[in-house]
Amino acid sequence: MMNQIIYLLPLTALVGFAFMFFKSAWINKQEEGTERMARIAKNIADGAMAFLKAEYKVIAIFVIAVAILLGIKGTVEENSNAMVALSFVVGAFLSALAGFIGMKVATKANVRTTNAARTSLNKALEVAFSGGAVMGLGVVSLGVLGISSLLILYTYLYGMDSSNGVTMVLNIISGFSLGASSIALFARVGGGIYTKAADVGADLVGKVEAGIPEDHPLNPATIADNVGDNVGDVAGMGADLFESFVGSIIATMVLGAIYFNMPEFADYKLGPVILPLALSSVGILVSVFGTFFVKVREGGNPQSALNMGEFLSAGVMIVLSYFIIEAFLPEKWVVGEQTFTSVGVFIATIVGLLAGLGVGKITEYYTGTGTKPVLGITKQSITGPATNIIAGLGVGMMSTAIPILLIAAAIILSFHFAGLYGIAIAAVGMLANTGIQLAVDAYGPISDNAGGIAEMAGLPKEVRKRTDKLDAVGNTTAAIGKGFAIASAALTALALFSAFMQQAGMTVIDISKSYVMAGLLVGGMLPFVFSAMAMSAVGRAAMSMIQEVRRQFTTIPALRDALAVMRKYDGNMENATAEDKAIFDKADGVAEYGKCVDISTKASLREMILPGLLAIVTPVAVGFLGGAEMLGGLLAGVTVSGVLLAIFQSNAGGAWDNAKKMFEEGVTHDGVTYKKGSDAHKAAVVGDTVGDPFKDTSGPSLNILLKLMSVVALVIAPSIAIEKITEPANSVQNIEMNKTTSATIVDGQVAAIVSDDSPESNSLIINRQHMVVANLAQPTEFELKHTPEIVLGAVQADGTTEININVGSKGIVHPNSKDHWIDFLNITVDGKGTKEVIKTNFANNENNKFGPFYVHLEKGSVINVELGCNLHGIWKNTLTVQ
Fold this sequence. Notes:
Layout: H1 2-5, H2 9-29, H3 35-76, H4 84-117, H5 121-158, H6 163-210, H7 222-256, H8 271-291, H9 302-328, E1 332-335, E2 338-341, H10 342-367, H11 372-381, H12 385-398, H13 401-431, H14 434-456, H15 461-503, H16 514-555, H17 557-568, H18 578-586, H19 593-607, H20 609-626, H21 628-665, E3 667-669, E4 672-674, H22 679-720, E5 731-733, E6 740-746, E7 749-755, E8 764-766, E9 772-775, E10 789-792, E11 800-806, E12 822-831, E13 834-840, E14 849-856, E15 862-869, E16 873-881
Parallel strand pairs: 6-16
Antiparallel strand pairs: 1-2, 3-4, 5-8, 6-7, 8-9, 9-10, 10-11, 11-14, 12-13, 12-15, 15-16
Helix pairs in contact: 2-5, 2-8, 3-4, 3-6, 3-7, 3-19, 4-5, 4-6, 4-7, 4-14, 5-6, 5-7, 5-8, 5-14, 6-7, 6-16, 6-19, 6-20, 6-22, 7-8, 7-13, 7-14, 7-15, 7-19, 7-22, 8-9, 8-14, 9-10, 10-13, 10-15, 11-12, 11-21, 12-21, 12-22, 13-15, 14-15, 15-21, 15-22, 16-17, 16-19, ...
């Protein structure tokens, strides 16, 4: 049944595509507005698509080079294949396609949102949200289609009816996540550098030096700024969440494979593997359902409308998840000393979803307009830029506390209810509604662009008022989206980390080892170096932008004269004379927008290469030079410091941004009102300029850094896996009953056994499959048809192994009677101060094998095995794990 379900999963993606094309066609039918609005929108669209094409040309070289290396690696690696290169290319292509689709629809929806705002707030919300919905549904549909299609292909080629087949298929599919992560990082870093270089140049020269409004047509950087909103917040965010979405699915699939051979999963062998994909597929349908409930009346609150669609779809998803999980998993199963249930897995998904919402709401509190932290920054702005920056840094640092506690609680609870698989499924639960979550998030930059077009086209104030209302909500949704992205990054990175440990043959990472601690410290350092690279890149690009804007303001006569007129009337052209208005109007369209767009494009493409390579080359170098354990330490360090730094930077930047916006509306402190153009406002603009690369470049890019490094580690894990065989094949050692036998476990695998004595009547065999066979001694008073055997299976990554007992037909045969049999079997495992006892009666049993019995082994565990005959005594053996 599970094999058949795989073929149904792509159908949900097709439903998502159908809805996406329907919405896209509806957007195209909406009016663009005036000729001037259409011209401005075309400039933005042309700049955005020009950047995307230039970026993808650079990335294509990287994709081809890595695909060749992966293909070579796959051909020489056990349980892998050159097809991993195909997975990588497909993942990269679909990630790039997700960004392209989002950019295309956003640049069409922005001007149509502006035009709709001329008549109705609800109509403007509908257009903007529809544009976001195309982006959101496109991302999740491409993710599900890509993974499910590759799963079907590889199942056909290699089969998934055995544990080795499942391992091979998942090793190959992991390349898909690497492709998605690689494109996401370049898109995030490149887009972030582009948008912030333009934003900083437009703000510092336009607002602070020239004193002109944001998005004013006289500002040469304003088109580049609006292009940047699409490049960074649409294409970049789309690639970011696409990568999180597919990363969480693949990590959970890998962790689910460990249950394949467990007896409780006899009827659900592929259930844990397919479950994350099934949940994500249903999430597409639920996201489509939620979009129909996003509506607002004129004068209403757009935030409430967006919350209605988002929370309603989340509620529906929770209900459906219960039934899906019940269908894909057995009621309960035992791993070591823990019993897990399908209900526990369901609880883990809810924990993930609630943690994501919680981090989002805390993010909203620390960054939202009018909240206590942001008001504190506005108050500190009165005394200048220095105190504004100090306050913003303090807000960002403090904002890490509750989100980290929520993420930590989610990790503990999800692990408690479902083990490592629970942590991974919590990430899937958090991202199950990515379709509508991303729709709400992408709505923000579309609304921001709509306001910019309204300003540049000189539309009436009520139009800008409506777009500003949408934009204000968009800033909040963007903050919540960043919170979701950070929380999901933490859980997804941990799930990928767990999958890496399993593939690398590790059960624990001992930080007391010098090379592990070294890896931990290097990993903790990397997010700081990465952030420094990204922020320095923004600084260099912004310097070029500032110089270009200043040049145009001073060397283009029409711009210089128009700025003089604006200063003469303090920006209010309604009071200007006809002659001055003519001078001002003469400057319309004179600014050389293309040169600013070119500066941002070239700078972002040039500067994104080094941070991207850092994330990919570092884990490869550490893994092959320092080994799997050192790489494990590196991943732990980068995850901890990266999550903290991402939260700090994103929230500090968001708080600075909204503090500036509050001054533009007017802020009153101690009876004095500070407005746009005041010294306090200028201080807030400086703080916002510092925060821009925090919240839109380095902060969001860190989310991808965490996951990309874990994905790279997962892909190379089979090549650096710890060797588990320390004895030659079929080597034989002897043991004696009633003597203590010590088994050495190396990284979760029985590697060698040493006995106190070595009589010839008993033997121990270690073969290439790590199976341990111990023959029991022959008591002299018995005639045995077959020597009873204890067979220990390979110790799995979670410490569990299976024990089988093999005896002859009818068990034991006495020379004078055929009525003797094995009366009982006791297997006792003493570990961590607890005991697990299995007692079974085998009277007159015709079988020659009893088991398997699953037990949990750790260093120090003692295994006692006793077989009792109904008349003549007991055979004993003791194995001590060292």
